[in-house]
Fold these 4 entries.
Entry 1:
Amino acid sequence: MDTPPTSPDAPGEPSRPSAERVREGVLAIPRGVAQVDFQPSYWTGLIFLIALFVGGWEFGAFGLLGCATATLTAWTFGVPWDRISAGLEGFSGTLVGVGLVLYLGTNWVTVLVVIGASIGASMVNSALVVLLKQYNLPALTAPFCVVTLMMLIAAPSFHRVWIHHPLNPPPSATHPGTEVSFSDVWHGFFNGFGQVFFQDKWYVGLIFLVGLAVSSRTVAAAASAGSIIGLLMGWWLGAQAADLDAGLYGYNSVLTGIALAGTFVVLGPAGIGFAAIGAATAAVATPAITNTFNIVGGHALTWPFVLTTWIFLAAVPTLSMLRRTS
């Protein structure tokens, strides 16, 4: 494994990283936030952080804590520097921080839990990178899903962890009904981007979309198509309007659309259709996985995206009209 090179100033003195290495280390944090949506741009990461703080200071602060902890863990144990500087070791920690503060509440115990869970996510990420390499599959957000799901299932057994947890019922629990209004549609479209980071305010989702457009208009278009497809699938199958409004049927489709439309599969007519089918599949998988995990006290998180994308990417070698990007 690579370790950050150092350059001693004089014999016997401790080695110090170069200014460029320090700069890249700092920029690895916003890049780690951006990599949640597969983007390497630190400008996109900074815009994403603004969106999180607009959604609530706790989301921005705990997202930063998780990203920094996971990134530092990877550096400490010698993960190759190119992965660290690109933000590939920080994005799961970002989601760990945002997800756990949402479900466990804002208190000092959650701070410790997020630090521990982010360290765990870094370990799971390294393990999955090795295990999935033989299948040419990326780890995606699976490290976040594994660690966060385990923590949420275990949390009720730990009094200090669970005592301050807020109730987070789905919007449809208080506003049932399947009649969809125009407001539900445009709210749901923007919330599809926000719910990737557990945000349910449409203007926060709009900021995330701006961040994607800053990185790539193609990616922003793929994400937008994913959000629309998720909405349409939910509406067509008769999903609760309040859940559509909140973006709960869009966020996994957003991620799947980005992943399959140019990120891991070469973009073309066949690739666009392939990505659209994947986005629709992720939308249907969302309530299936949600209902399954509700039994054990867990949440769907981004599992629908992860499982759908793994299956679709594994199928590419047998589909002659498609080609992997690498």
Note: The two ends are 22 Å apart (CA to CA).
Entry 2:
Amino acid sequence: MQLTMKQKRKIKNNLVGYSFILPNFIGYFIFIFIPVCFSFVLSVMEWDGSASPMKFVGLENFSRLLSDSTFLISLKNTVLYAIGTVPLTVAAALLIAVLLNSKIKGIVIFRTAFFFPYIASLVAVGAVWNMLFQPDFGPINEMLKVIGLTNPPRWVASTVWALPAIIIVSIWKYMGYYMIVYLAALQGISKEMYEAASLDGATGWKKLRYITIPMLKPTTFFVVMMLTIQCFKVFDLIYVMTQGGPGRSTNVLVNHIYNAAFVEFKFGYASSSAIILFAIVLVVTLVQFRGEKKFTSYM
């Protein structure tokens, strides 16, 4: 069967297109797909990462999670971190975006200033904030003493205040990125709607409540979804600032997985914890997608 010129051209164009995505596909297959599949296999095995053979243990690793106090505390800390970080970051990003959604002179400087923490080195950010939160001579506690607080929090040195301190730093670091997302969405809202509202006597607050926030709901769904996934996968900031301490007060799921795998060399147990984390993130994502689909069907 002889191919026509049109069919040959189509095949050639397809091959050219596949050649562009092939390097990315190979990288994804080697560094993501295979390790993920191997994690599922490891989750039902007992293995210390050495030359010793793997031992099949079935669901024993998963049953151990239910009685592991460190895992349960890590899960609790992860949920608390997400509950504290997501709404406050969304609110801060939206508020800043609304304030900076103007064309006044020098506004680019302010936008850049708020975005800069997101691109700053995370190690440097953690080191600087640890210095600021220093309980005895840190600038934050010195300022609190000046305004009359005689016994300020010990922040990252306290089992009570360490997680709130991490939440504060997370909000500061990531709100700039989501501010840019909101700015892009704000600039897509028709100015005529605000002009019509002004003619009807609407104040700035009413414009925000009845025009801006409803029009930004799809963007807010996206921001909440991305932030939630990011919060459940948090590791680097906590590792730099507290390494899960003091005690287990800031130990989160990824930190627990890291310690189980690369400190205790329990790769099977660590993989079962990773599968649980994967399942949690998957469920949260599906719920959020369902909510977004339901919302768009009403619009």
Note: DSSP finds 13 helices and two strands in the chain.
Entry 3:
Amino acid sequence: MNINQEQLQMFKLVMETGSFSAAARKLGKVPSAVSMAIANLEIDLNLVLFERIGRKPKPTAQAKVLYEKTEQLLVEINQWKQHALALSSGLESELNIVVVSELLHTRWTDYIVLLEREFPALQVNVFSAPQEDAHHMLFEGSAQLALMFEREQLETREQFIELKREVLVAVAAKQHPLSQFHQVSYEQILQNRQIVVASRDRSIKPELLFSRNYWRTDNHHSACNMIQQGLGWGVLPLEMINEQLHLQEQLQILQLLDFTPKFEYFVDLVWSRETRLGTAAHFLINHLRQQRKTDH
């Protein structure tokens, strides 16, 4: 069976116009060419699609069933061709983006919407991971882009664009002993269990670790739930707390006596210089660069 796109298009138009001649006019062909193409299609399918009685062909029951599938099939063929053209022009087969756990509450989906509008056929995969793991995913090649906090030390192989500032604050449940103090000393912080968002690799020390006694989790949702239960204090995004009324009611922002209670970080879009990026990744990077120019 050798069915081509032109045959399907002719079949669709004959069904919609009700005649070979009307379909031929829409296609800019002679009626005999359309009639011959439909006859060949019937041979290929081993089906009678039209009863040729009277002046107009009458579609058979089989033709009506096939017609329901034809429109979608033609759309899929066109999408396939467009995607193949995009791939030949440098579009990646898929784009993997990792978002640091504490940034999942931010408007990172705006970037995905932008990519979907520009490259509707692109497969986008989004992962979440602690900061250290997100960094590792970039350089092992399992992610091409990462939305993450600024790093204390930059590696020569990484490149980035600053996006925004993010404030993290020390919090505890309102029933937690630390929440009963107007100000909390550094010694009290050291002695109380901390719930820390950290790499799944136990050999990597978490960046925002202060307490001697701590529990680890790989995402801020789990950390938040444990903190809400009074299992320890932790560091969470201020924006997340401000946006969720129930967190404001259940959590207390700790006023730390010996050092600033706020941790301000830049949020960056990061990629590796060693990774060959495709069209979609470059599009997003250039869009953000242009956005920074406009904002400044």
Note: The mean pLDDT is 88.
Entry 4:
Amino acid sequence: MNLALFDLDNTLLSGDSDFEWAQFLIEQGVLDREIQEARNQRFYQQYQEGTLDIGEFLDFQLQPLAAHPRERLDAWHRDFMARRILPMIGAPARQLVGRHLERGDLTAIVTATNAFVTGPIAREFAIPHLIATIPAQEQGQFTGDVRGHPSFQGGKITRVEAWLESLGLCWGSFTDSWFYSDSHNDLPLLERVSHPVAVDPDPTLRRRAEKENWQILSLR
């Protein structure tokens, strides 16, 4: 059995679903443009620089979910998928995922973006498993808090290993394992698999991939 793990933002997607969700809410008038757009840009820059405070960011990301009924959030997300996400899914990304699925590999998206935003995207790719940051809920409504460990940087390994354990598996269960990512933030998990793949990588990841002779590919 083989294992195929995929980062989502700027990897399978030609953009960042986290960033785009906040921008979408700003366009809908849900978030204040003057205040929130600058914060969204700042968090995105910090992520790219590797200096993101994940707690501060998740507070920004999850508070809007707690402020609105789930039915309204779901309606917004359907519009968000059509207008923002589907245009960011290219044929090469679908084909890459399809090859792993056809081979019968155990596949999952592993992303720091929260599961509300990314769940429908994973289903669009027909990827059966999603390891994402989990927004806490009470009686079907989001609270604005995080449940469990965020799926970010080294936390991705923690979450992947817990998921594998829940399936009665471990790293040694697989003949080969892949992780596809664009970001140096994902170096801990890239170093853990037998086949790390840099997808349209940022400069830091590209340098590391070239040094280690990792595969580099483009899905654009």
Note: The beta strands are 3-6, 106-114, 129-138, 141-147, 177-181, 195-199, 215-217.
